[in-house]
Design goal:
single chain, 3 domains, five-stranded parallel β-sheet, 16% strand, binds iron/sulfur cluster
């Protein structure tokens, strides 16, 4: 493997790399006596850099692992069945820290964050391992030759790749990194290795839409059989981002010189107008109709925001082909609406008459939510109500529910004289820490309101929670 010459930028390097966080009962890990807090140093003599490498190296029938427990170093020689799960999770999945990005995207949302948010949000990660493990999108611009060889050898995938544009010069400008030009070569390398990948385009009006978007979709569709899907999401601009835009553009001035239009000095970042959003829907719909007969699926999918901001209906479920990019929010409105229809059509429920609560949501989905709640109240006799909350932290242009903070939810219902539960979208809260973006925990919010706060994925969760005994709130 090629020796890496430049030190890699990393963050969050764990104090005890390889520390076991949990051991599942009934698995090989428990059988051989691994314990929470053990530190796994090596497998078959090879030092580990992350949990993926453990999975890869410890997948054989004869495995030797070296474990540090307290002041002791223990060596286990294990014979295992090839199917036997180890059943261990690591406290930090990457033992050498998180690989940081080397880019300066003019729309970078992390640079638009105000102060006081959850600390982990400020980490500008671009780590291919997190792409496979958690679905993060990566640009591939910081990969070393050693990384590539490892990806190929260990077949690390599927990968989620932020493409934005396939025109090399435009991608350089959009990613703010001269290394971003060879995206098609990078994708070809994934193809040769047989690694599946999803792609994403952050669409910036007047920059990478129109003909550039046609080119990008065409290039990606033709890149090979391992390209699974293209998600197109609108650029997100907080008020902080807009205030700092001139600074952000200066950051990537070197890359501006390479733009197709040589006179172009800045990339203006702004939101789509309704008319532009409608044009994007029309353009993508044409592609979908063309691609579906050829590929048996739409291949390219639009972020829900395009439909919601224009008032157009979100596509039917079958048009999402199994929702390949639901982690990127693509199609969650359709899943929500289908759940509402199913609930109203079929569910035999306990008597819900008179039971109620407050559903807090972002302004983008407020009309849809209001209509939904009216249907539910009519069907079940519930007294649910909707509170639409403007995003005072990021500015009104950021209108999705998932970016509301605990503080905003608290303020939105502060005037209510009610002891009924407050329902929030589960996308507002980190699954790992149970905290909002502003680091407020769900428990703290519940305590400050004196009401139960319940994260819900859909309307079924809300109705189920109404008949559950309430959790006590201190
Ligand atoms: S890749 Fe771009 S958007 Fe992502 S963290 Fe880096 S600069 Fe920000």
């Amino acid at each position: 493997m090629t020796v890496q010459t430049k030190p890699r930028r990393v963050a969050e390097t764990p104090e005890r790399p390889g520390r076991v966080e949990s051991v599942e009962p009934g698995t090989l890990g428990e059988e051989i006596g691994l314990e929470q807090g053990d530190q796994i140093h090596s497998v078959n003599g090879q030092q580990l850099v992350d949990a993926l490498e453990f999975q890869y190296l410890a997948d054989g029938e004869q495995v030797t692992i070296v474990v540090e427990r307290g002041n002791e170093m223990l060596e286990y020689e294990i014979e295992r069945e090839i199917w036997e799960p180890w059943g261990i999770t690591f406290a930090d999945p990457t033992f050498d820290g998180i690989h940081l990005c080397e880019n300066a995207c003019p729309f970078c949302f992390i640079k638009q964050l105000p102060k006081g948010m959850r600390k982990s949000l400020y980490v500008m990660d671009d780590d291919y391992r997190y792409s496979m493990m958690y679905g993060n999108f990566v640009t591939l611009t910081n990969l070393t030759e050693a990384d590539w060889q490892r990806i190929e050898e260990q077949r690390i995938g599927p990968m989620n790749v932020s493409v934005h544009a396939t025109d090399p010069d435009l991608r350089v400008a959009l990613v703010g990194n001269p290394k971003a030009a060879n995206i098609m070569e990078h994708l070809a390398r994934l193809e040769r290795a047989g690694i599946e990948y999803n792609t994403q385009v952050v669409l910036c009006p007047g920059v990478n839409d129109g003909e550039q978007l046609d080119r990008t979709i065409g290039d990606l569709v033709n890149s090979g059989p391992y390209m699974r899907s293209i998600a197109i999401v609108p650029v997100g601009l907080s008020q902080h981002g807009l205030e700092r835009q001139s600074k952000r553009v200066r950051l990537s001035r070197t890359c501006m010189r390479s733009l197709p239009n040589a006179d172009q000095k800045i990339l203006e970042m702004r939101r789509h107008t309704d008319e532009e959003a409608r044009e994007v829907i029309r353009q993508v719909s044409e592609w979908q109709q063309k691609l579906r007969p050829e590929h048996g699926r739409s291949v390219v999918y639009l972020g829900d925001e395009f439909y919601l901001m224009t008032g157009e209906s979100v596509p039917q479920s079958r048009e999402y082909d199994g929702f390949p990019q639901v982690e990127d929010g693509i199609g969650i409105t359709r899943l929500f609406l289908d759940d509402v229809d199913r609930t109203i059509r079929r569910k035999q429920r306990r008597d819900l008459t008179g039971l109620g609560g407050t559903l807090v949501c972002g302004t983008l989905i407020a009309d849809t939510m209001q209509h939904t709640v009216e249907r539910i109240n009519q069907k079940f006799g519930t007294t649910l109500r909707v509170v639409s909350a403007e995003n005072t932290m990021f500015g009104p242009q950021i209108n999705v529910s998932g970016l509301l903070t605990g503080g905003i939810v608290r303020d939105a219902v502060a005037d209510e004289d009610s002891s009924e539960p407050v329902f929030i979208s589960d996308t507002m809260v980190s699954r790992r820490t149970n905290t909002f973006l502003d680091d407020m925990s769900v428990t703290d919010l519940a305590e400050s309101l004196g009401r139960e706060v319940i994260p819900a994925e859909n309307i079924s969760d809300v109705l189920d929670a109404l008949v559950r005994p309430a959790a006590s709130v201190a």
